[in-house]
Amino acid sequence: METAERASFLLRMHYDGGAFSGWQRQPEARTVQGELERALAAVCGEPITATGSGRTDAGVHARGQAVGVRVAPRWTADRLHRAVNAHLPGDAWIADVHAMTPEFHARYSAEQRRYAYHIGTDRLAASPFRRRVEWALGRSLSVTTLQAEADALLGEHTFRAFAIANTAPATDDHRCRLDLARWEEHDGGVVFHVAANRFLHHMVRFLVGTMVEVALGRAPVGTVARLLRTDHNRDTPKPAPPHGLFLEQVTYPRTLYLSPT
Q1: DSSP of 92-137
Q2: Catalytic entry in 57, 91, 179, 235
Q3: Angle at Cα 241 formed by Cα 239 and Cα 246, nearest 5°?
Q4: For this structure, is 57 an active site residue?
């Protein structure tokens, strides 16, 4: 059907990424997109494409994945919300649904994406209830040192050093604008909050892994600033593990919403 004959909705998803092979649909693996599209087909009686704001890797969690769907106009936000949740597995959930204008696109309309990365630094980080959603480092980290590295990230930079090579188109300049890069202490650990107009493949995990290496004294102070001036990732420390990462929020222009948010 043409766009004019469909109703456009934004779904805000939560999921525990531990048992998913990432967001993107794969024929032989369990993915978030695959489970959501099965639920949508069950309630809508036809195949429905679920377009995510971006891909999350295997093991990465979400409390604010944004998903765009176009369905028959008989659906309201409330009815679609209840119906889809009734068909989703226990590790995925729709928090809310919003009616959107036909111009809305979950990926291309996004103004900002925000992530949080959690690290457990105390002994209790090894608990099975925490190590599923935190990097159980079990070692103290200086927030002052971490933040000094993070300060270099603010503004627009080329992030080739902090992305998997050859995963973006050859014409991609790898430039991203970071509006937030803040470390905070929390009970038993630290958390990194980061927001940008876009993120590259593994980018947040590379950033966290690099800053932790500096805080542990295994890389010199100023490593992040130095790597931002390079055009490769050959000298970049390995990325932090995926299970400490959460997609927290995706922001869109208010003009795309058909109802108040």
Answers
A1: EEEEEEEEE-TT--TTTT--EEEEEEEEE-SGGGGSTTTTTTSEE-
A2: 57
A3: 105
A4: yes
Domains within the chain, CATH numbers bracketed? 3-109 (3.30.70.580), 112-248 (3.30.70.660)
pLDDT above 50 (res 251)? yes
Q: Where are the beta strands (DSSP E) in the chain?
A: 7-15, 51-52, 61-71, 92-100, 112-120, 135-136, 155-158, 175-186, 189-196, 245-251
User: Tens digits of per-residue pLDDT, 42-70?
Assistant: 999 999 999 999 999 999 999 999 999 99
Contact in structure between 178 and 109 (CB atoms under 8 Å): no
Question: What are the Cα distances from residue 228, in Å, to 64, 91, 179, 194?
Answer: 28, 37, 16, 16
Residues making up the chain, counted from first to last = 261
pTM for the whole structure? 0.94
- How distant, in Å, are the alpha carbons of 154, 165, 176, 251 from that of 172? 20, 12, 11, 23
99: left (phi over 0), alpha (psi -120 to 50) or beta: beta
Give exposure, 31-62, as e/b (b: 16+ Cβ within 10 Å).
bbbbbbbebbeebbeeebebebbbbbbbbbbb
Ramachandran category for residue 81: left, alpha or beta (phi over 0 → left; psi -120 to 50 → alpha): alpha
Angle made by CA atoms 256, 260, 261, in degrees to the nearest 5: 85
Alpha carbon 118 to chain centroid distance?
13
- Extract the tokens encoding 60: 């990465």
